[in-house]
Amino acid sequence: MASNVRGPNPAVEAAEESLRAIYACLDGGRSFLLEAGAGAGKTHSLVMALRHLISKRGRDLAKRNEMVACITFTNVASDEIASRTDGHPAIYSSTIHAFCWSLLKDFQPHLREELPSLPRWQERLDEGGGIAGREVEYDLGYPSAKRNDRNISLGHSDVLALVVKLLEKPKFRRLLAARYPVLFIDEYQDTDKDFVGALMKHFLGTGEGPVLGLFGDHWQRIYGSSSCGRVAHGALEIIEQKANFRSVRPIVEVLNRMRPELPQAFRDPSSTGTVSAFHSNGWTGGRRSGPGGHWTGDLPEDAAHAHLEALVAKLRGEEWDFSANRTKILMLTHGVLATEQGYARIAALFSSNNAAYLNKEDRHLKFLLETVEPVCASYEKKRYGEMFAALGTGTPSIQAHSDKAEWARDMARLSALRASGTVGEVIDHLKASGRPRLPEAVARRDAELETQAREGLPEGEAERSSITRLRELRTFPYAEVRSLAAFLDEHTPFSTKHGVKGAQFENVLVVAGRGWNQYDFNRLLEWLGNPAGIPAEGTADRAAFERNRNLFYVACSRPEKRLAVLFTQQLSEPALAMLSKLFGDGNVQAFAP
């Protein structure tokens, strides 16, 4: 949060005010929520709060074997917190799953008691020979209860569900409070809503449990319905951090007009930059419609591509540097993106539910993207420690020279299939080699497809859509999976909402259009222009409004110096009027190639 700006710095003054409020809560034993808009310096405030606790209570905490727990959204964020607090023994920084497992692992009898009540677990246990006497473990997050295994493995969601159940038990709550008298949650809005709800139920206003510190911004919740979003409780002191250390004044002014209830102070009131919005209403050709109306009003794919190319050329002429480390193109639509990046068939297969592949909800794609690709990348770089870490337990190890030869043979074959084979050929190879091992859910669905192909469906029974998709996915070139992996891992100049959170770039070009069944930015602008018409809390339309608003806000708040937005969908007159209000009349213009 350091600044080189000379003279008064309103952003620093605003951030220092919120820090004083945080310190007062910590010193007084009061729980709080820091609402910090985009670029407000939230992480800095979190680190300063941890350092304050280290300074005031670090020695006493260490003597009593107590720690301040800091739950983060990713391992990268956890490592950063640990680094910025110098690995102090009084600070425990981890992801939510690691934190929950640190509490659960010592409650084996309770885990065995509760596990059968979780979805699908009774069936797994019946097939696997029961639960009696078996150790419950958590490693890769693949649920498994095979008959010949001594241990039972939990899935990621199981860990959260179990900690919510055990929080009902006073002994478990006492253990948590004794071990962690202070609990911080970073990016609270993206944290599992049942977990946050359980903490609020048992520890806010009850006189027991740790002091809670929630850090985040409910306007930046973009990861789905399982996250908690906005949090409110009478025993939770709300602290607003009204600063922006990221963006120049023209961009912050757009954000403040978008969100007047949380105005941000500029880091440098004299800073200059550009904001501009371009619409495609002048297009005279036909526009798209498509299944479910998801594409209604958008440009045809080739026209959208032409508009994007022409706008990039125009911006290059206005001193935009489109190298990947300077500029990010945020695609809030998929028609252009999938074709540009080389995974068009995968996008088309999941066109009715983009989240199934972009959020890695499809089990096969999740396994290929999160296990197979990282394993192969590590192997090709000869980083064998990383490779075995990605593989986890349950994978054949190297214990003799013959094992090494088998590994080399299997990995060479896998590399060749990734280059020129199909998804099905890669899956079949992995089933045979076990390097890496297929998760239970993937193996089960693949076996179901095989059985159906061999025996057919019972008379009058229709094929499940998931099996139909899997059959088609297996025919696709595996190269599409590699292209999708490169895109999701930020190895391209493009991003969707998945590459938006937490990042910042000198310049950002946002392409807003249709193609996602949950997003309609014309409708968003109409809602913003008519506050009285914004849907009521708790309704489906309200959820749609917040989903659209949050993604648009997050996208527009990424740039440091230059922001441009291209709307490939047709905008109504009320939407155009609101766009001009946000960006300024002189900064909105019709655009055509």
Describe the protein.
The protein has 593 residues and is an alpha/beta fold. It has four domains: 10-102 and 161-244, Rossmann fold, CATH 3.40.50; 107-159, no CATH class; 273-334 and 496-590, no CATH class; 358-488, no CATH class. Helices cover 47% and strands 13% of the residues. The chain is built from 24 helices and 16 strands. It has helices spanning 10-28, 42-63, 75-84, 96-104, 108-114, 121-128, 156-166, 170-179, 193-203, 249-258, 301-316, 335-341, 344-349, 355-358, 363-380, 384-391, 401-420, 423-433, 440-455, 465-473, 478-488, 521-529, 540-556, 573-583, and strands at 32-36, 68-72, 91-95, 135-137, 151-153, 182-186, 211-216, 237-241, 243-244, 265-266, 274-279, 327-332, 494-495, 505-512, 559-567, 588-590. The strands form four sheets. The protein has a six-stranded parallel beta sheet with strand order 3-2-6-7-1-8. α3 links the parallel β2 and β3. α1 packs parallel to α2, α4 packs across α7 (156-166) and α15 (363-380) runs antiparallel to α16 (384-391). The protein is globular and about 70 Å long. The protein starts with 9 loop residues before the first helix and ends with a strand.
Question: In brief, what are we looking at here?
Answer:
By secondary structure, the protein is of the alpha/beta class. It is built from 24 helices and 16 strands. The strands form four sheets. It has a six-stranded parallel beta sheet with strand order 3-2-6-7-1-8. A six-stranded parallel beta sheet has the order 13-12-14-15-11-16, with helices on both faces.
